[in-house]
Amino acid sequence: MEELLHNISIKKFRSRFPDTPGSALGDDLLIADLRYARALSVFKYPFRFDGYIIIFCISGKITLEVNLDSFQVGASSLVLNVPGNIIRVSDVDSDAKDLRFIVVAMSKSFMSGVRFDFNRLFNDSMALFDYPCIRLDRRERRLCRQYLDLASVLLNSELPNKKESIGALISSISYVLGSVWTKKLTAVEHKTQQVPSAKAKNVYDQFLRLVTEYHTSERNMKFYADRLCLTPKYLSKLVKTVSGRSAPDWIDAFVVLEAKNLLKYSDLSIKEIVGKLNFPNQSVFYKFFKSHTGKTPSQYRNE
């Protein structure tokens, strides 16, 4: 099988769209202008991007899945994806002749040198986990376009300190976007009456973070309960209260996404995938995968 986009890097992204208008800073930063549905249909299966992505929708519409949630991305939408998320374009409005997205991709190493604390601004509220997609108003949209235009000018310049200049600009826009996200999140929280307690929501957020990190190796509820200093029964109750979905269901759903990702975007044999996902044998994996997808691993890989 051809090696596809299991874990997308900027280098792989550029190789997939060699004719896409855009500017790049080596394998650290890419600003691409995607103008047609076929470009986004490449991403119809789950994948990870090994870095940060900002997607700014100029026109058209797609449905984007981030981990297990679906978001309608249309004109004036802004999506920010962080490393580790499993994402997929589940639907592309192929009839839209004006489909256009500006994609800004940044490597983790590049962002580590940018003076911006993602953890401080986002992690306390889990804004990027719960709300990776927001709709900009006219003033916010104009501001984002100005930043993107300036970034493109800098990337196409011959400045000797181009990387440092771009880094400072990315730091600035990150704080602007962080403020926008915080404002949007606050508005959402004021509009919705949250029945679950703050404690339950906090436990749920921590649980999903742990599942995101450990689902390939740990599927036992006791592991997650121990990490959160709770009993499995109480953890399950809190997760169910907040999300309406049981904790084991969340774990299984992440494992299914990972299995789909490996089946479509890697050259690993099914036996190797069984080992990578820590199933005891192929028979158990086949039963698990088919019960959740209605297909065997081989059928899914070859469709």
- Mean of all residue-level pLDDT scores: 81
What is the alpha-carbon Rg in Å? 20 Å
- Report how far the terminal alpha carbons are from each other: 13 Å
Low-confidence stretches: 1-5
What is the H-and-E element order? Answer: EHEEHEEEEEEEHHHEHHHHHHHHH
**Percent helix range:** 40-55%
Can you summarize the main beta sheet?
Answer: 6 strands, antiparallel
Spatial shape: globular
Query: How much strand content do the residues show?
Result: 15-25%
- The total beta strand count reads 11
Number of helices: 14
The largest beta-sheet arranges its strands as: 2-3-10-5-8-11
SS content category:
alpha+beta
Can you walk me through this structure?
- The chain is an alpha+beta fold and 303 residues long.
- It has helices at residues 10-16, 37-41, 108-112, 118-123, 127-130, 138-155, 162-191, 198-214, 221-227, 232-243, 247-265, 270-276, 282-293, 297-302; strands at 7-8, 22-25, 29-34, 48-49, 51-59, 61-66, 69-74, 77-81, 87-92, 100-107, 133-135.
- The protein has a six-stranded antiparallel β-sheet. A three-stranded antiparallel β-sheet has the order 7-6-9. Strands 1-4 form a two-stranded parallel sheet.
- Strand 6 (61-66) and strand 7 (69-74) form a beta hairpin.
- Helix 6 runs antiparallel to helix 7 (162-191), helix 8 crosses helix 10 (232-243) and helix 9 (221-227) packs across helix 10 (232-243).
- The radius of gyration is 20 Å and the shape is globular.
- The relative contact order is 0.11.
Keywords, separated by commas or semicolons:
303 residues; disordered N terminus; 19% strand; 6-stranded antiparallel β-sheet; alpha+beta
